[in-house]
Design brief:
13 helices, DNA binding, about 50% helix, about 300 residues, 2 domains, L-fuculose-1-phosphate Aldolase, alpha+beta, seven-stranded mixed sheet, Lambda_DNA-bd_dom_sf, Aldolase_II/adducin_N_sf
């Protein structure tokens, strides 16, 4: 008697770990770094790298497995993907392959009696919230990498700091929006990101994003930067919609932004801005479909 879980442990995981170790080493990670990323010993990495661990050829040759290994290796090597997200993505593929797919076929080959039994081994795998949250955090990381690679992004950071945020698809509150704890600040002419993205840490930028979404505007990410007329003109020249809203009505942000958006013809990524007031710093907000897109628009338009 052989359970499908045994097949996962004995065939799938060693194959995938071996492929990941090889792929990470090809990205110039040291043996110690690979061991730390995968949570295994250096001796295990050495065995994987030298082909001392047997691979299942059908698993290693499956395009979905190959694609996922490359995706995970890219994410782990750049820091865009956390170990939690890597684990979730691999787990999702395992469940997919168990559901009348590759692992189910291998299981039947190991247990021929299954083909004669009238038993449904289908496994339902709904999208989990943890997978979605990790994908959003990864997206913010990619956007931050674009911003910090800009030599002059620091000049766009307002006195209150910037934040790059992205929300869950069904976001309704600030707790559904991921951003940088403590915001992004200009430290001696360099954009400084103090911590890894988390949910519920950016009330201001998140509130503007949620206010736009509450008026059926299809955006999931936003970035606040400094305001000046020349900067707005640059966005307009690059083909992006720019819309002014009333900074004095900050206590009625949702209504104020709704009024500003009501008659606007919006591009996929657009700019909301307010020119300041008594005790209010003028700020621009770039809103778009995801954090990397927003960051790329700021880089190209400014």
């Amino acid at each position: 008697m052989k359970f499908i879980e045994e097949l996962v442990v004995e065939e799938f995981l060693p194959t995938v770990r071996s492929m990941l170790a090889e792929s990470l080493r090809a990205r110039d990670l040291t043996q110690r770094e690979v061991a730390d990323v995968l949570g295994i010993s250096q001796s295990a990495v050495s065995k994987y790298a030298h082909g001392e661990v047997a691979r299942n050829d059908r698993i290693a040759g499956d395009e979905r497995v190959v694609d996922l290994v490359e995706q995970v290796a890219d994410g782990l090597s750049t820091g865009d993907m956390s170990r939690v997200q890597a684990l979730v993505e691999i787990e999702v593929l395992i469940r997919q392959l168990e559901d009348g797919d590759l692992l189910a076929d291998l299981h039947e080959a190991a247990m021929p009696a299954l083909t004669e039994a009238d038993i449904d081994f289908s496994i339902h795998d709904p999208d989990s919230r943890i997978r979605t949250t990790e994908q959003v955090r990864s997206s913010v990381r990619r956007g931050l990498r674009t911003l910090t690679s800009m030599g002059d992004f620091a000049r766009l950071i307002p006195n209150v700091g910037s934040n790059l945020v992205e929300c869950l698809p069904d976001a309704t509150t600030v707790d559904d929006v991921a951003g940088v704890p403590g915001r992004i600040f200009d430290i001696k002419g360099r954009a400084t990101v103090p911590s890894d993205p988390e949910f519920g840490v950016s009330e201001h930028a998140a509130s503007v994003l949620l206010a736009a979404r509450s008026h059926a505007v299809d955006v999931q990410a936003g970035l606040n930067i400094t305001y000046d007329a020349e900067l707005i003109a640059q966005f307009e020249q690059a083909g992006y919609t720019t819309i002014e809203f009333d900074s004095e009505a900050s206590e009625e942000l949702e209504t104020t932004i709704g009024e500003a958006l009501a008659e606007a013809s919006l591009t996929d990524t657009f700019v909301l801005y307010q020119t300041g007031g008594f005790g209010i710093e003028p700020i621009s907000y770039v809103l778009g479909p995801d954090a990397p897109t927003v960051a790329s628009v700021v880089r190209s338009a400014t």
